[in-house]
């Protein structure tokens, strides 16, 4: 169970069985071409200890209008009690996009987290990948990094 504080008369953000909860805009915003804006949702939550929430883009907004989230996925820690805000980005170079109050702008997915403790060491154990970074896990059909 996740306690939800909703500003105004907004509906609860998810139905039983949904993987993600809809985040709705609590304010109107106009996104110019290639512009970004942080949009309030009017929603605050109390996550249980040992969980975190990820703020994810909506696939329909991305496919139809080029709207995504700048820092996707956004991370909400269990101790945070403020309003969840979403930084939207309009990737369209020519068309503005208007967000109206009540529009579904993102999704929130809550995940369990393992207990993790960071411990300083003199060296790390080896692995197949080692220190290989971006594109280091395979090659494309023409021998290019994928």
TrEMBL record:
UniProt keyword annotations, A-Z: Hydrolase, Nucleotide metabolism
Listed Pfam families: dUTPase
Gene3D superfamilies, A to Z: 2.70.40.10
GO MF: dUTP diphosphatase activity
InterPro entries: dUTPase (IPR008181), dUTPase-like (IPR029054), dUTPase-like_sf (IPR036157), dUTPase_trimeric (IPR033704)
Domain named dUTPase-like: residues: 10-138
Top EC category: hydrolase
Keyword check for Hydrolase: yes
Catalytic reaction list: dUTP + H2O = dUMP + diphosphate + H(+)
Statement: the UniProt record of this protein carries the keyword Nucleotide-binding: no
E.C. numbers: 3.6.1.23
PANTHER family to which the protein is assigned, alphabetical: DEOXYURIDINE 5'-TRIPHOSPHATE NUCLEOTIDOHYDROLASE
UniProt family annotation: Belongs to the dUTPase family.
Protein name: dUTP diphosphatase
Source organism per UniProt: Amnibacterium endophyticum
Upper taxonomic lineage: Bacteria, Bacillati, Actinomycetota, Actinomycetes, Micrococcales
Gene: dut
């Amino acid at each position: 169970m996740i306690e939800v504080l909703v500003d105004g008369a907004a509906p609860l953000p998810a139905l039983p069985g949904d993987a993600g909860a809809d985040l709705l805009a609590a304010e109107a915003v106009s996104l110019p071409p290639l512009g970004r804006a942080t949009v309030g949702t009017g929603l605050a939550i109390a996550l249980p200890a040992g969980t975190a929430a990820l703020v994810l883009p909506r696939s329909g907004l991305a496919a139809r209008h080029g709207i995504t989230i700048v820092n996707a996925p956004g991370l909400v820690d269990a101790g945070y009690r403020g309003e969840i805000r979403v930084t939207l980005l309009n990737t369209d170079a020519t068309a503005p996009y208007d967000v109206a109050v009540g529009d579904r702008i993102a999704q929130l997915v809550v995940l369990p987290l393992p207990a993790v403790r960071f411990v300083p060491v003199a060296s790390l154990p080896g692995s197949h990948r080692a220190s290989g970074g971006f594109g280091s896990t395979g090659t494309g059909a023409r021998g290019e990094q994928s």
